[in-house]
Amino acid sequence: MLAWMLIQPSIHMKRTFFSLTGILLIGFLGAAFLPAASAGKKQEFGLFPARSGKLYGYIDRAGKFVIKPQFAAAVRFSEGLAGVKNDKGLWGFIDNTGKLVIDPQFNDVRPFSEGLASFSKGSGRYGCIDKKGNVVVKPEFGAVGLFVNGTAPVIVTKIRSGLPAGAGGFIDRSGKFVLDPVFEGVGTFGDGLVPVRRFGELWSYIDRSGKTVIPAKYREARKFGEGLAPVQIDLQPRGHAWGYIDRAGKMAIPAKYEEARVFSEGLAAVMSGGKWGFVDAAGVMKIAPRFSNVIDEFAEGIVMVEEGDTTGYIDDTGKFLWKQQ
What we know:
The protein has strands spanning 13-18, 26-30, 48-52, 55-59, 65-71, 73-74, 82-85, 91-94, 100-106, 108-109, 117-120, 126-129, 135-144, 152-156, 168-171, 177-186, 194-198, 203-206, 212-218, 220-221, 229-234, 240-245, 251-257, 259-260, 268-272, 275-279, 285-291, 293-294, 303-307, 310-314, 320-323. The protein has 325 residues and is mainly beta.
């Protein structure tokens, strides 16, 4: 099975971590939340998607609805816009006043990154729109990830140069390939490097020229965030575990976790003993493992989690700031 990794799920999905088909698009659960694009500069909007009854709106940090619940689904703001779904199942984008900026017309969308957001309509193929809703990249890909410094991972949908449909590569903002689709798995750039898996190999990291910087030796690998990247390695005599490497490929946090996510705002979610907690860059457990799921990454000082029957936002001490009713 082809394994390609976007490191950012569809907007109407929530991740156990990402991938698109299992390609190390690791598994999606139906949901209405998604983290803001974490590839670029820190952004603060002060509004967070929240559900009341069956509808979604946006709350402030105090838990007060600023944009009233009216959407079938809603996601975090990214670059001033947030994806929302109407009662007909179509996605559009609103601004921070709740005003529709791009009318609902898409079957699927992803967050804006560097002024572009990927979308799909009836064909199921993905392209990119700008903030006015204009098509900038024609919908001809199996998926399009987040842009980082002008480059985004994609999956091709037809055979090219003898390679099977489903191979991954990287495009620029015009949709032109900057790294040909020759990979079985691709991720998102972070700190100048990107995880890829060549056909028949393990995961490695390459730079923007396509040069291998960290050799292929990982069962799974995710994007760099704040100088560290989560990787899964084999253990002796058996088994495997997740840890974190630095840009030199040196293990910075020992591989001892059942799962691991990307660092954001100084913390990363890790699974230990079947529960999720958060570690800092030194590997110190700052929030003890007690959550059944971590739905997004820390952004603006909060993250959405599930603990038992409770879903809500916690701060960086693990305290609940808002609980879904």
